[in-house]
Design a protein that fits this description.
The complex is a heterodimer.
Chain A (H helix, E strand, L loop, with lengths): L5 E4 L4 H17 L3 E8 L8 H32 L4 E8 L1 H11 L4 E5 L6 H6 L2 H8 L4 E4 L1
Parallel strand pairs in A: 1-2, 1-4, 2-3, 4-5
Chain B lengths: L1 H13 L1 H10 L5 H20 L10 H16 L3 H4 L1 H9 L13 H12 L2 H14 L2 H26 L2 E2 L5 E2 L2 H11 L5 H36 L4 H16 L4 H28 L1 H17 L6 H17 L5 H6 L7 H8 L1 H20 L29 H9 L5 H32 L3 H20 L2 H43 L7
Antiparallel strand pairs in B: 1-2
Classes of the chains: A alpha/beta, B mainly alpha.
Chain lengths: 145, 517
């Protein structure tokens, strides 16, 4: 029986780096594979102009490529160099919901995510990704400060 | 207090219209008058041709043309607008959207963007024009035209997606000019290219008319209603400057902000109407009786039943643009594997635009008692120009404003902002449609596009400076001319849509197209 993989949310920030570091130690001790997940915030209910609609397909491709090349690939390469089994998953959507979907689809044992640490008015008004994730996740979530 | 604010709001709106007549009385010809005269003289023949009556009747042939087409498509597709209504809503909700396609334009976004191009002055000013000439009965015919128009939209938007051009960089161009051209070629029919060119020419004119001058004109009426009367060309120059900044200067942020504010203005408008209707719930039944009675008796309006019918049909077409071909341009940019799904989504547009929003405007005007009725005969009292006398002698935007302000005194100001924003967003939408037609005619290229955009800005000024009558007539005529060519094409290409529909149905049944939610 193989160990279920661990999903680590990575957005290129310092918090993301810390999450990757912790996930790496988990993976090394348990032998689990890692899935580096990156979600591009996207709502199907936002309003677009006619030009934005026309260019959307092109932009989506560009955004995808940029995320892949500038953010995800270097981390995947670094983890692979450390001898781990790593894959990546880049998607568009609501960040917390999409992370849960990625975890579900891969039968992951847990999600590791870093928090930015904003506890101010903004987080109170709009909620935070980590807060939402803790509420809706179907697997254990490790929040890295 | 309420009476005072009500009259104040009324008063400010009133100034816009008598001012136009006053300007004409003045001996000294202003810039506005000169533009107006040249404009009326040079477009008169075109207007006369489009609105010529069917020989021996008082029915403009173009109105019959649009309604007969809508009825034909409704029958041909077995009243698809009712049968597919539920499926259309499911598509918009994203029930059939593949999660792997997240990040692409959703059906909801396609619908919202297309709606922001059509929901606007047609729903506010157009409806007021319809009921102030055709009486409450015009509403009945407007709703009927809206329901039938759903089938026309379904047909044209499916074709728009099916025959669009896709370019290597992933961008797309579509619309009637492409399906007339490619669709006719595919079916071995002649004259496809000729009709495509005709459509594109009319589309450029329609963009300058209904999509631009009419909007600029009403935006000026709205502003001068709030700040007092001043020459229209001043609004024109300012508005042209903003349009210039967006379409030439590439100031996308303005368009993006407008695109986001307009839906909220739309929701605010509908909510206000609902509140007024809810406050007068006991009068809704009576209002509907008046609508139905007016539809079949005319209640004394000029032209009787036919007068009410023509007004209802004409303003419905102007508001929801079904059969005009503009929606086919808007929807063709959406990425979808199934062209027919855009058809399903687009059939909701005439429903939301005409059946829901236009009806609300008209209910508010009727419920608040703006149309003057002779208590003895129960018939409308007519004014000198043959329209129905209204409480404040208003028409167009001012009549809608008066109706809303009679309940909410402050609404005149909100409406002025809404009218301005709606006008602006419709102008930006139509600059896009016009440009697509222009590039179809002359090819793509920075220089060629710039010529169109500069012309567009110039007509903003012309529109704001002209009187309503001349602008309204030309706007309608140019839009409807698009409908003439487009609908001929739709008749020849509707079997293609039927094939798409049958294929889609079969795949839906077999489970090949599956629900994700």
């Amino acid at each position: 029986m193989t160990t279920p993989p661990i999903v680590v949310a990575y957005d290129g920030s310092g918090a993301g780096e810390r999450a990757v570091t912790l996930a790496q130690t988990f993976a090394e001790s348990s032998g689990a594979a890692l899935i580096v997940a990156h979600v591009l915030e996207w709502s199907p209910y936002s309003f677009l102009t006619k030009e934005e609609i026309e260019e959307r397909h092109k932009r989506r491709k560009e955004e995808m490529t940029r995320a892949e090349q500038a953010l995800v690939s270097p981390v995947v390469a670094k983890l692979q160099a450390a001898g781990l089994s790593v894959s990546s998953d880049i998607r568009f959507g609501h960040v917390a919901e999409t992370l849960v979907e990625i975890a579900k689809a891969s039968n992951a044992s847990q999600i590791v995510i870093g928090r930015i640490g904003s506890s101010g008015l903004g987080a109170r008004l709009f909620g935070s990704v980590t807060g939402t994730l803790a509420q809706i996740a179907t697997v254990p979530v490790t929040i890295v400060p | 207090m309420q009476r005072f604010s009500q009259r104040a709001a009324l008063g400010v709106f009133l100034t816009a219209f008598p001012a136009m007549a006053m300007a004409q009385d003045e001996a000294a010809a202003t810039i506005g008058d000169t533009i107006n005269d040249i404009f009326a003289a040079s477009t008169g023949w075109f207007v006369a041709l489009i609105f010529a009556n069917v020989p021996g009747t008082t029915v403009p042939w173009i109105v019959g043309w649009l309604v007969i087409a809508a009825a034909v498509f409704s029958l041909y597709f077995g009243f698809i607008q009712f049968r597919a209504f539920k499926h259309s809503i499911q598509l918009v909700k994203g029930d059939y959207s593949d999660p792997n396609d997240a990040g692409e334009v959703s059906h909801f976004q396609a619908l919202a963007t297309a709606l922001s191009g059509t929901v606007g002055l047609g729903n506010i000013a157009g409806v007021a024009v319809a009921v102030s000439i055709g009486g409450a009965g015009a509403t009945f015919w407007m709703i009927l035209a809206g329901l039938l128009g759903m089938a026309t939209k379904f047909t044209e938007c499916t074709l728009g997606v099916k025959y669009r051009n896709e370019y290597p960089d992933g961008s797309v161009s579509g619309g009637p000019m492409y399906y007339l051209d490619k669709g006719f070629k595919e079916r071995g029919l002649p004259l496809g290219k000729f009709m495509a060119v005709m459509f594109a020419i009319f589309c450029v004119l329609g963009a300058m008319g209904g999509g631009n001058m009419f909007q600029a004109n009403q935006a000026h009426a709205a502003i001068s209603g709030v700040v007092g009367d001043y020459p229209g060309w001043i609004t024109g120059v300012i508005l042209a400057g903003v349009v210039f900044a967006v379409i030439i200067g590439g100031l996308k942020s303005i368009a993006q902000v407008t695109e986001k504010v307009v839906p909220f203005m739309g929701v605010l408008y509908v909510l206000s109407a609902l509140v007024i209707i809810a406050m007068n719930l006991d009068m809704v039944g009576e209002a509907f009786r008046e609508i139905v009675a007016g539809a079949f008796t005319g209640l004394g309006v000029t032209g009787g039943i036919i007068g009410a019918l023509i007004q209802g049909f004409r303003r419905a077409a102007f508001s929801n643009e079904a059969g005009i071909g503009s929606a086919a341009i808007a929807h063709s940019a959406v990425r979808t594997k199934e062209p027919i799904t855009e058809g399903f989504v687009s059939l909701l547009e005439p429903f939301i635009d005409t059946v829901v929003i236009c009806t609300m405007t008209s209910l508010v005007i009727i419920i608040t008692g703006q149309l003057m009725v002779n208590p003895e005969t129960g018939l409308y009292i007519l004014n000198d120009s043959g329209g129905i006398a209204t409480v404040g002698d208003t028409s167009g935007v001012a009549l809608t404003a008066a109706a809303f302000s009679s309940v909410f005194g402050w609404f005149g100001y909100v409406l002025a902002v809404a009218v301005f924003l709606f006008a602006f967003s419709t102008m930006i939408s139509w600059s896009y449609y016009g440009l697509k037609a222009w590039t179809y005619l002359f090819g793509e290229g920075k220089g060629k596009e710039l010529v169109f955009k500069l012309l567009f800005c110039f007509f903003v000024i012309v529109g704001a400076a002209s009187s309503l009558g001349a602008v309204l007539d030309f706007s309608d005529a140019a839009l409807f001319a698009m409908g003439v060519v487009n609908i001929i094409g739709l008749y020849f290409l509707m079997p293609v849509v039927k094939r798409e529909l049958n294929g889609y149905r079969a795949r839906l049944k077999s489970g090949e197209i599956k629900k994700f939610k």
